[in-house]
Specification:
The structure holds two protein chains of two kinds. Chain A has a two-stranded antiparallel ribbon. In chain A, strand 1 (about 175) and strand 2 form a beta hairpin. The radius of gyration of chain A is 32 Å and the shape is flat. Chain A has helices at about 5, 15-60, 60-65, 70-75, 85-100, 105-115, 120-130, 135-145, 150-160, 165-170, 190-225, 225-240, 245-255, 260-270, 285-305, 310-320, 325-355, 355-360, 370-380, 385-410, and strands at about 175, 185. Chain A is mainly alpha-helical. Chain A folds into three domains: about 5-60, no CATH class; about 60-165, no CATH class; about 190-415, MetI-like fold, CATH 1.10.3720.10. Chain B is an all-alpha fold. Chain B has twelve helices and no strands. Chain B has helices spanning about 10-40, 50-55, 65-70, 75-105, 115-125, 130-140, 150-175, 180-185, 190-220, 220-225, 235-245, 250-280. At the A-B interface, helix 2, helix 11, helix 12, helix 13 and helix 15 of A face helix 1, helix 4, helix 5, helix 6 and helix 7 of B.
């Protein structure tokens, strides 16, 4: 038989193999087209904005755009000695325009970040500039204040020339690029962000541990009780899960306040005296207690769904082979629950590390986390590029854990009650 | 869980200790919700149990904070509730449609790059809300949708779809595809098949996904804080402002209403879950 006759043909005369491939391709396309609307929607309203955030965090064109002539003139300057008259003239013209447009304040703020003392000499220059005569700007500007004759200030100005910079990322970990272009740490008393990063990871870690310790016994109880009792108890887990986050935080604010019920109870059992009731809110304690209670259901549900699949006969077999109940638990039951532990811990950790609302309400100054700092820069200092940089650093961490979660657990195994 | 008669004493003690621990945890989970109820009926404006309340004196209880919530002058709860419901309804509708269609594609065995696409679609649930809030705020400001209902609805669709995708793909995982093939062989077109065969079978999953999306939108505060203007205020925003500035018992009255609402939603979701498991023949 020749090879041609072996080929099976469909009724249209096309080889079956090709026809099947075509059908497979069509099915793939069909499935993909179904996902397309959501994918496109998310790309436009979600992925693209996050990319925009990345751009914003490194975009440093504000100063460059304000002083276009100066930076053009500076291209030739080698940065060793004071720049030439050309640079001074360009700077005078640029700055005059900013003063006329009343936007010089922004420049002063930006340059003061770069080098302390810039703000005052810019203000002085603005006052004296009105009387400037044409020509020989170098002499006139240097005459305003002696710092204008200091080459350090001009170098600081030149450092802001690149349109993109990673300085916000350095600031996020309390570092900066000094005059020599070296990356160094800021003075010890100004290292605020490192403390926050450490605190965020610490709180997320301990909340995860606390959740695990509390969730394990009750998940076990729920999985081993007869249906009619466990369904009832499951409500205790699911009701907080469905209740508004703000309502749950509000209830903790009532419970933990100084005249609150928890403190009343401590006084009643004689743990503390009525006069010095401990402060349990607006500090780390508040953050720990409230976050643990709020995230507990996210630990219970994955543990429960794994424990439900473990046959009770395994424990009986372990015991009948001579293990004490503890040994049977430790050697048989516990290893089988590890997938649930992994799923629950990773989920709680991911959720805890980005928590914002609860720490903001019950955390006070010592219990706030990195998310609160991002919100602070978005709303109060309006340093949006710094907020973006911090956000993206946090996002990188979260996505890394999410990747591990996806590898170990699989996103399609997330349990929602 | 009764212990067998032959249990040794120290295991018996251990067992009761374990039950005690469990009850403590359950108490920790559920009790905080119940302090809100009695305090919302407080006749005074302090957020502690007054002596009268401890004595169960009827005069110590009143409905004044509920009256304040509904009739109070210059209080924002009416507008906030209206906005919250409108936004949540449209966000739910959008999430359910986009999420269900995507879940149908994801559940097909022909779907290419299933894992990575699924991970991408779920990511808005995982990414910290503050980051989503900042990113979406920049975007909405750029396209001129900041401080509009439309902008908030779009943002909430982003946050709500992962829940729909998860619940509907879970429902579809036990779905017998031969019924759709049977429909096709009987001459039904895909849209008709979906409407008459698939949708009724996966409806419990779709509705419970919708409930999740509704609750997510109804309860969402971080993104709205960035996006909302004065006209777009929602219940969570009002609660947030109230909790930050001064805790008034009116908030507790609102909170009580929210707890009742979430109880209703929980009951619905549970009934749907059981129905869905029955339809799919899963007996747990």
């Amino acid at each position: 038989m020749s090879s041609e006759t072996k080929k099976i043909l469909t009724t249209d005369g096309i080889p079956l193999e090709e026809s099947l491939k075509k059908a497979e391709k069509k099915n793939k396309l069909k499935a993909f087209l179904l996902v397309c609307p959501l994918l496109l929607f998310l790309i436009i309203t979600y992925v693209f904005p996050i990319g925009d955030m990345l751009f914003r965090s490194i975009d440093d064109r504000m100063v460059t755009n304000m002083l276009p002539k100066t930076y053009k003139a500076m291209e030739k300057w080698d940065g060793k000695d004071l720049p030439d008259e050309e640079v001074f003239e360009a700077f005078y013209l640029d700055y005059k325009k900013l003063v006329e447009e009343k936007t010089f304040g922004k420049l002063a703020t930006q340059l003061n970040y770069e080098k302390n003392g810039f703000k005052s000499i810019l203000k002085k220059l603005k006052r004296k500039m009105k009387k400037f005569e044409e020509g020989n700007y170098k002499e006139q500007i240097m005459g305003v204040h002696k710092r204008w004759a200091n080459v350090e200030y001009w170098r600081a100005l030149k450092r802001r020339a690149p349109a993109y910079s990673y300085s916000k990322y350095l600031k996020g970990v309390d570092m900066y690029e000094n005059e020599d272009g070296k990356i160094v740490q800021v003075p010890e008393d100004r290292r605020v962000h490192k403390i926050l990063w450490v605190r965020t990871v610490e709180v997320a870690f301990f909340v995860t541990v606390l959740c695990f310790l509390m969730a394990y016994p009750i998940a076990h109880l729920l999985a081993t009780l007869p249906m009619k009792y466990s369904n009832l108890l499951m409500i205790c887990v699911l009701l907080p899960f469905w209740t508004s986050l703000l309502v749950r935080t509000a209830s903790w604010m009532i419970l933990l306040q100084q005249q609150g019920i928890v403190n009343d109870f401590f006084v009643w059992i004689g743990l503390v005296s009525d006069e010095n009731r401990p402060e349990m809110m607006y500090n780390k304690t508040g953050t720990y207690v409230a976050m643990t209670q709020i995230l507990l259901p996210f630990m219970v549900l994955p543990l429960y769904s794994v424990m439900k699949t473990i046959s009770p006969s395994l424990m009986r077999a372990g015991k009948s082979l001579g293990g004490t109940p503890f040994v049977a638990f430790w050697k048989v039951y516990f290893p089988l629950t590890i997938p649930g532990i992994g799923a629950g811990c990773l989920l709680v950790f991911i959720l805890a590390i980005g928590y914002y609302i609860t720490p903001a309400l019950v955390g006070g100054a010592s219990g706030t986390l990195i998310s609160n700092q991002i919100a602070f820069h978005m709303k109060s200092t309006l340093d949006w590029s710094f907020a973006s940089a911090m956000g993206l650093m946090l996002l990188t961490g979260v996505l890394a854990i999410y990747w591990v979660y996806n590898k170990l657990v699989g996103v399609d195994n997330i349990k929602l009650g | 869980m009764a212990l067998p008669k032959y249990t040794e004493p120290h295991y018996r003690i251990w067992h009761y200790f374990y039950l005690f621990i469990c009850s403590c945890v359950f108490f920790f989970l559920i009790a905080p919700l119940f302090v809100i109820f009695p305090l919302s009926f407080n006749a005074e404006e302090f957020l502690v149990f007054s002596d009268g309340m401890k004595r169960l004196d009827p005069d110590a209880f009143s409905l004044r904070w509920y009256k304040d919530m509904i009739y109070g002058t210059k209080n924002p709860w009416g507008l906030a509730a209206k906005n919250s419901f409108i936004i949540a309804l449209f966000a739910t509708l959008g999430s359910v449609i986009l999420g269900t269609v995507a879940a149908l594609g994801l559940s097909s065995r022909h779907m290419p790059y299933k894992g990575i696409i699924m991970a991408a679609l779920i990511s808005p649930m995982i990414v910290p809300l503050i980051i989503s809030g900042v990113a979406i705020f920049f975007f909405m400001a750029k396209v001129g949708l900041a401080a509009t209902h439309t902008g908030i609805v779009l943002a909430h669709i982003v946050l709500g779809t992962p829940f729909v995708v998860i619940t509907v793909t879970a429902t579809l995982s036990g779905f017998d595809h031969s019924v759709t093939r049977a429909a096709a062989s009987l001459g039904s077109d895909p849209v008709n098949t979906f409407m008459k065969i698939t949708l009724p079978l996966i409806l419990p999953g779709v509705i419970s996904g919708g409930l999740f999306a509704f609750v997510t939108s109804f309860d969402e505060v971080v993104v709205v804080l960035f996006l909302a203007g004065l006209d777009n205020t929602t219940i969570p925003i009002q609660m947030w402002t109230g909790l930050r500035e001064q805790l008034s018992p009116t908030i507790l009255a609102v909170a009580t209403c929210l707890i009742i609402l979430s109880t209703l939603i929980l009951v619905t979701a549970e009934l749907l879950r059981r129905r869905s498991e029955r339809i799919r023949g899963i007996n747990r």
